[in-house]
Design a protein that fits this description.
Elements lengths: L32 H13 L1 E5 L10 E2 L2 E2 L7 H4 L4 H4 L13 H10 L4 E7 L26 H12 L2 E7 L26 H19 L5 E5 L6 H14 L4 E2 L12 E2 L14 E5 L17 H13 L3 E6 L9 H17 L18 E6 L2 E6 L6 E7 L5 E4 L4 E2 L2 E5 L7 E6 L9 E6 L10 E2 L6 E4 L4 E2 L5 E7 L3 E10 L15 E6 L2 E6 L4 E3 L9 E11 L3 E8 L15 E11 L1
Parallel strand pairs: 1-4, 1-10, 4-5, 5-6, 6-7, 8-9, 9-10, 19-22
Antiparallel strand pairs: 2-3, 11-12, 12-18, 13-17, 14-15, 14-18, 16-17, 20-29, 21-22, 22-28, 23-27, 23-29, 24-25, 24-28, 26-27
Helix pairs in contact: 4-5, 4-9, 6-7, 8-9
């Protein structure tokens, strides 16, 4: 995981994330039956635990008495620490508090079904017993144990899929690992030969990882930039040969195929793949342990993030950073313990669950599907009632999974021909500060009309991912309004760039709001902001861009034209638009 990206310029169409967080690679391309089965087993898990751990946990973000800004695991690179000094950390690395069963039990009790361990991070120090390099936790430390072997055993005991992280391109210990963010303070990159590093260290270590720790479910590669194409394909082939059941993420690089897309760290694109994607996220503002860790995410926000991820068809990989003794910070234990308490009621709507069937999202929370049930993950603690528009059948029962008590509901026609219904619920009060979980059971798998339908008298949200994008960059929506009146049109966009330095680059950008023959020019300004728990570090920005007059019930069309819309947190050339919200002003 990466350091600070250069300050962006609006002149640049794309700001490459050279350092604060990684990027996803190529899209999933293979579609054989074996590929689909392998991916589905991983996809059904939905929730995994990531562990970043190594000798960087000793300085923990502080060197020579000075706090080094950025991610703690990047301290060697950020502070340009000589290898002779950084490597000496291994001599005092003796994590006697490490207990693999405790780590894996934490993950299991939180409801996670896979566990990804950092075998070798960018500092090149192997956190497993490697015969390919003596720079490893068994041979170079007084600890003398192989944590990966113990974790593999613990994962087998808890029936949790084991995944292994390997930094295939960056290695600050090796003079031949040349490329982006290489060690150029100890070594002369002009004298290095990446292929020599690849043959001498990377390939042998990959063989060790793939051969010595039983069945693996996942190979998590990182930092794809700069890897030669033939090296990436060799790594891919090794995984397929030695661990055919393991999925490979898209950060291998070099044009190699992937089983799923690794999205930007801690972030969610507005338009996401239909399936087989994952967001890796921190529990605070660092991946590895930091003495000065801040930005600890609240449990409710982490539960909401998991619900959102599953509602959009993805997986969440949530990180923990143990300290130099091998112990998890208490904040981490509390976070995962809280997720586990929520999963006691929410798990049927998370694990192996499907994405929301609705053609848009809801401000109160998220919807997932499983069998003949819909699960509502209600994040808005103030909500006392809600309605679901466009269902083609009515539920037979509605249950609050926290208390196992029935939830009162009513059903009304939403279309004149009776083909779609609105189900309205009287929500029970929250039992705690976590999202409520409401299960709607149907006779058959529930289906939903594909058009956006307004709940009478309520705001209507038009998400970017539900709109039709034109060749000219316009975004257009067709929807049904149930309540005539005047509506405020609010464009919702999000802050972007590094989580340590959120930016909103859209101030002053212009476009046109088009509704039928009415064309309203607008200029974006920051008219307010809203918290966005699933992103935590980045806010949602409100920009009021016009008015919509609805004279009668029925179909409407709205478009945003002549505005540059982007979908990357590194792109400063346009606005990162999430949605347009129609907010009632004066109903008629």
């Amino acid at each position: 995981m990466p350091p600070t990206t250069p300050t962006p310029s609006r002149k640049s169409a794309f700001q490459a994330p050279t350092a604060d967080e990684g990027v996803h690679g190529p899209s999933v391309v293979q579609q054989t039956s074996q590929d689909i089965q392998r991916r589905q087993e991983w996809s059904d898990a939905k929730f995994g635990v990531f562990v970043h751990w190594g000798i960087s946990s000793i300085p923990a973000g502080v060197w020579a008495g000075r706090h080094i800004a950025g991610l703690a695991e990047w301290i060697q690179f950020k502070a340009k620490i000589p290898l002779s000094e950084y490597g000496d950390l291994a001599k005092s690395f003796n994590p006697t508090g490490f207990n693999a069963r405790d780590w894996v039990r934490m993950a299991s009790e939180a409801g996670a079904k896979y566990f990804v361990y950092t075998a070798t991070h960018h500092d090149g120090f192997a956190m497993f017993h490697s015969e390919a390099s003596a720079y490893n936790v068994v041979d170079a430390t007084p600890f003398g144990r192989d944590p990966l072997a113990e974790i593999a055993q613990a994962c087998a005991e808890h029936e949790i899929m084991l995944g292994i992280y390997y930094s295939q391109t960056i290695d600050w210990e090796d003079p031949d690992a040349v490329g982006p963010q290489c060690n150029d303070w100890d070594f002369d990159p002009a004298q290095g030969d990446f292929h020599r590093y690849w043959r001498r260290k990377a390939v042998p270590q990959l063989r060790e990882i793939l051969s010595n720790y039983g069945d693996l479910g996942l190979l998590w590669f990182d930092m794809p930039s700069g890897i030669p194409e033939e090296c990436a394909h060799e790594a891919f082939d090794l995984v397929r040969e030695l661990q055919p059941g393991a999925v490979i993420n898209s950060r291998l690089g070099g044009g190699a195929d992937a089983d799923y897309n690794s999205m930007d760290d801690n972030y969610f694109n507005n338009v996401l793949p239909a399936r087989y994607w994952e967001t890796a996220a921190t529990t605070n503002d660092s991946w590895a342990y930091s003495q000065r860790a801040a930005g600890w995410k609240p449990v409710a926000g982490l539960c909401e993030t998991l619900a959102y991820t599953v509602s959009r068809g993805g997986n969440l990989l949530l990180n923990a950073g143990p300290d130099a003794t091998g112990s998890m910070p208490q904040q981490t234990l509390d976070q995962f313990g809280g997720i586990g308490a929520w999963m006691d009621r929410a798990a049927p709507g998370i694990r192996a669950a499907g994405a929301s069937p609705f053609p848009g999202s809801f401000d109160w929370g998220y919807v997932t599907t499983a069998g003949s049930s819909l699960f509502l993950h209600v994040a808005d603690h103030e909500a006392r009632e809600l309605s679901l528009p466009g269902l083609t059948s009515a539920p037979t029962a509605v249950l609050d999974r926290a208390t196992e008590t029935p939830v009162p509901f009513t059903v009304a026609d939403a279309a004149t021909d009776g083909t779609a219904t609105v189900v309205s619920l009287e929500l029970p009060p929250p039992t705690d500060g976590l999202p409520r979980t409401i299960e709607l059971t149907f006779r058959h798998a529930p289906t939903v009309a594909r058009n956006l339908v307004q709940i009478p008298g309520c705001a209507l949200r038009l998400d970017v991912w539900t709109g039709e994008t034109g060749g000219d960059g316009s975004v257009r929506w067709n929807f049904t309004m149930a309540t005539p009146g005047d509506y405020r049109v609010v464009l919702l966009s999000k802050e972007t760039f590094s989580n340590a330095n959120p930016q909103w680059w859209a101030d002053g950008m212009t476009g046109n709001l088009v509704a039928g023959a009415d064309r309203q020019p607008f200029t974006l300004h920051r008219d307010g902001d809203e918290t966005y728990p699933i992103l935590h570090y980045w806010k949602v920005i409100r920009s009021e861009i016009g008015r919509l007059q609805v004279s009668s019930v029925g179909q409407q069309e709205l478009a945003i034209e002549d505005l540059v819309v982007v979908d990357s947190k590194w792109d400063s050339s346009g606005v990162n638009m999430i949605a347009v919200r129609l907010e009632p002003i004066t109903p008629r």
